[in-house]
Design goal:
This protein has 400 residues and is α/β, with parallel strands linked by helices. Helices cover 37% and strands 26% of the residues. The structure holds flavin-adenine dinucleotide. Keywords: FAD, Flavoprotein, Monooxygenase, Oxidoreductase.
Length: 400
Amino acid sequence: MANSSKTISIAGAGIAGLTLAIALAKFGFRVVVAERQDAPSEFGAGLQISPNARRVLDTLGLGDDFAANSFAPDAIDIYPHKRTSPINSVQLGDFATKRYDGVPYAVAHRADLLDCLYRAAKKFANIEIHFGVEEIDATQANGGVSILLKDKNSAPFPVTARAHIGADGVRSETRINLLGGPKPQFTGYVAWRALADIDDVAKHLPMNHTSLFWGPDYHVVLYPLPHQRKVNIALFSRHKHKSIERGAELKLGPNRLSIKENSVLAPILDSLYDQFTPWPLFGVTCEHWYKDNVALIGDAAHAMLPFQAQGAAMGMEDAGLLAVLLAAEPDNAKAFAQYQSLRKPRVDKVQKQSAQNGKIFHMRPPKSWARDLVVARQSPDAQLKRLDWIYKHDPFEGLL
Ligand SMILES: Cc1cc2nc3c(=O)[nH]c(=O)nc-3n(C[C@H](O)[C@H](O)[C@H](O)COP(=O)(O)OP(=O)(O)OC[C@H]3O[C@@H](n4cnc5c(N)ncnc54)[C@H](O)[C@@H]3O)c2cc1C
């Protein structure tokens, strides 16, 4: 029978859960991952993988594999409402790679990142992934956790683990049921996502850049996914809480009218409105990320608005650090306390910055005029300088 002090159970084979599984396996843990879906998830669209997230992949030896299916844009062009050319460009490409000590800022399809993690996890004999798990019964027991994984096709699968980690996303049952934590809250924003044909968008925008459009009560992010011949498009708008609660059909109505005034965006989006899928955005503010032998990582602990493109990045940083702490400290209470105290202040700050970006990106005149004046005058490295505290971070620094 496996040594339970070297076994960790994880709920969720998403980005955070698989990153944690790989990091723990490298330290010699046996890792049992329970995933609700029947197969590795292919949902989602594009993700920006900033240098702090990429550093985690590089440390785990996955950088080259990830690079094969991702793309490093040269810049982020900023277009305020009705502008036909960018007022400023955040320099990325080689400029950012040099700034972050050889670590690039890239974009990828979420399914490609998950595939990279999944293939890496499958190479470890000490990682077991159970798909189609409908229920995870977890009971705290004698310095560990007794787990039963249940699905409709087989007998319950028992796991005796040192700790159980909830990497089960924004609607985390681990957070709500095992930690008595809060339910996710609707943020007031909806993301509308679509993938466009790269050749169509190339007629309007440079396909080696990310384009960011700011408008009254909306913003749009577009970036190329060249190996898929697609462009990821995410349009963010506000939405009333009540209609989300009632499950009313989500409509882009007023934002479509604003976007019509935008002569760069309108022709790109015109033929895509039917393809947009709405994603109401929920956030999680959770004070306690652990209790006894159970802890949370990723969106389960701190789902945030995606306006700084850091949700997955924070989950990957959580995973890297938690693996190191569990390997170094046999007492879960001490390892988890250290984990929360090292991670939470940073995550809170990123969460606040993401919410603040929403207010800035969606400003209306006259506030937007002042915003645009400031941004237009900034030097090309000003935005990166402002965000160094996010991108320079290495969760493994001084620990390995
Ligand atoms: C529009 C949009 C754009 C974004 N852009 C970016 C970006 O550019 N960069 C970035 O870093 N982040 C971005 N994010 C955020 C990012 O997608 C999330 O933060 C990230 O996917 C969270 O990863 P996770 O592993 O914590 O959770 P998830 O990806 O949600 O994974 C959770 C996993 O747990 C499984 N699960 C759920 N419940 C159970 C259960 N009870 N039992 C077993 N398994 C369960 C799920 O099936 C899933 O596989 C964006 C988000 C949105 C909505």
